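help with this:

***
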Amino acid sequence: MPLGLDGESLEQIEQTQNNSNANDPNPPPNPSKAKSSRKFRSKVWNDFERVDLPDGSYNAKCKHCKMILSAGGSKGTSHLKYHLNRSCLPYKKAMRQKDDVHQKLLKVSEFQGNNTVKVECFEFDQEKSRKDYAKAVAAHEYPFCMADHHFFRVFIKNLQPKFRLNKRNTIRSDCVKLYKEEKENLYNVLDKLNCRVSLTTDMWTSSNVKGFLCLTCHYIDDHWRLQKRILNFVPVESPHTSEHLCSVITDKLFDWNIDKKLFSIVLDNCTTNDALVREMLSILKPKNTLPVSGNLFHVRCGAHILNLIVQEGLDSLKGVIHSVRETVKYVRSSQARIERFEKVSQQVRAPQTKLFLDVPTRWNSTYLMLVNALKFREAFSRLAVLDRDYKHAPSDEDWSNVDVVSECLQIFYDTTIKISGTKYPTLNLFFNEYCEVYLSLQNWLSSDHSFIVNMATRMFEKFQKYWHISSVLLAIASILDPRCKLKSVEFYFRQMYNQPGEVETNLNRVKSCLNILFNEYLVLDSKFQKRSNGLRSSNKQCADSSSAGSSKKLCTNMRRGLAMFIEESMTSESTKSELDMYLEERNVPGLDDDGFDILAWWKCNGPKYPVLSQLVRDLLGVPVSTVASESAFSTGGRILNDYRTSLKDDVLEALICTQDWLRALAIDEGATEDGALMSLSESVCVDEEID
C-alpha cells in the first residue's frame, strides 16, 4: 500500500481530507483544478519563492537577486544551491554580514579640510575593497604583479582575512573597468559644463622610441575651481606631421563632444605646431564657435618661450659654466676628494651642504649649480693651493661672472616657477612677469660686462620674436585681474616703448581685441536671454488665453506695457557696459599679495558682472604653460619608464588617465598632494632623500 510523507497510507490521508472538507463551510476547489500546494522539505527553498506556471509546473525565484530558475519534477535543488553559493552576490554579501562578529567594529575617518573625525560602524564589502585596490594600483603606479607577492598576500590576509586578493590579470581587468567608469563620469561632467575648455598637448616617448600624445583639457568648474583632466594618452605613428597630429586630436575632441566648447590650445613653439593649429582652424572655424574667429586660439607655451631664451643666453656662457661644472665633477669623482673638500669647507666656514652637479638638459639645474658653487668660492680657492691635481679652478674673473650670471638667471627661474603652477590660474600673472623680463633684458644691453651684453643681445632677439605674438592675450588677462586692470598695461607699455605713438598703438590693439571678445559674449548672453524671455512670454500668453474675457486683462496689459516702458527708458539712459563699469571701479589692493585668490573674487562678483565673469571664467582656464614646474626647465623630451613601456597601449592609457582623474578627485575632497597622491617611483625618491 502506498505511503505518504509521514508514513500514513494514501487512503487514510484522503479520508482525513474528506472529513475536514465536510466540516468546512467553504470547501476548497477541486484538487484537479487547483495548483499543487506541496510543502518543500529542502532548506534551499527558504531563499526562493515558488512561481507557478499555467501548465501546472513551477519555477523558483531567488529572493535575493530575483533571478528565475527552473524547478519541479526531476530537476532537484542542486542547481538552486549552486546559484546561491556561486552566482548570487546579494546572498553572499548577506552571508558575510551574518558571519560577522556580533560586536561591530568602528571605523574612524579623518577629514583634513576641517580637522573633523567621523566614527561609524564598519562592514566589510568584498566588491568595494576590490575596487579600492584597483584605485590604489592606478593612482600610485603599483605593479599588477604585487597581487602575486607572497608576503604582500600574507599582509593583506592578516589585515582582513575575508578579503580575497585576485591575481594580476584580474587586477588589470579591474583597472580597465575602473577607467571606463571614470571616463563615463568625466564625459558627463564635460557635457554639462557651462563654460569653455582649453587644451594642452604633450609628446612622450617610450623607452623603445614609440611616440605618444597626451591630450589634456583645462577649465574652471561651477565652484570656480581650476581643473585639469588628461583626456587621452594615445600612440602616434611616425612621422609626426601636422596633418596626422590634427587627425588624432580632432578625433578625440569629437569623441568627448567638446569640439564646440574650445577656447584655446597651448603648444610648444615649433613649426610643426604652427602647422597643426592651421589644420585645426580649417576644421573648427567653419563652425563659428571659436572666440574672436579663432585669433586667440593658438597660445604659445610661456615656459617653453623662457626656456628657449635662457638656452640662447647660456650658449654664450659655455666657458664660465664649463669651469664650474668641471670643478664640481672633480670634487665628486672620489670619496677621498669629497672628504678633503669637506675638511677645507669647514676651515673656511663654508655651508655644510653637498655640491650640486647640473643636468645639461635642465637649465634650472645649471642655475642651481652656479648658485651652490658660489657658496664654496673660498673653499675652491684653498683647494687649488692644497691639491696639485686640481686643474679646473675658476679664476677670480670667472667667479665674478658666475655671480652676475646667477643674478640674471634668477629672474627667469622665479618667473618659470610662478607661471608653471597647476593649482592656480597663471595667464593673468604672465603679463607682468613677461614685461619685467623684457625690461631686464633691455637693462642688460647697457651692462658694463661685455659677456652680459652678448648674452642679453641673443636673448632679446629671441624674446622679441614671441612678444608681439603673445602680448595681446596676456594683456587682456592682466586687465581682467581686478588688481591690475588697464593701469598695469599702461604702466609697462610706457616703460617698454619709446617711439612716438607706440604706446597708444599697442594699447588700442589690446583694447580693441578685448571689446570684440566682450561683445561676442554679450551677444551670446542676449540670445540666451531672448530664448528665456520668449519662453516666459509664451507661458504668459497661455495664462492670458486661459482667462480670456476677464475684467483684469486690460489692467494686466497696461502694467506690462508700463514695465516695458520703464525697462526701455533705463536701457536708453544707461550706456555703460559691464566692462566699462568694471574698468572704472577702483583697483583691488594687494598687487604683491601672492595669496590673492582671483577665482574667489570673480565668484563673489559674478552676479555683478554676469557676462564679464563668464568671459573671465573661460579666459583664466587657459594655462600659460603646457607642463608643470618640475618639467618646465627641461630641454629634453618626456620619457616613459620601462614599466609603463611594457604595458599594452590601451592598458597604458587606462592607467595614466585614471591616475590623473583619481588624484584630481582626491584633491577636491581635501587630500594632499604629497604622500597620499604619490606614485611608486616618487616614493622611492623620497625614501632615498630621507636615508
In short: Residues 502-546 form the longest helix (45 residues). Confidence is low (pLDDT under 50) at residues 1-36, 534-550, 683-691. The longest strand covers residues 211-220. The chain has five domains: 42-102, 105-130+145-170, 175-297+652-668+676-690, 301-404, 422-527+605-624.
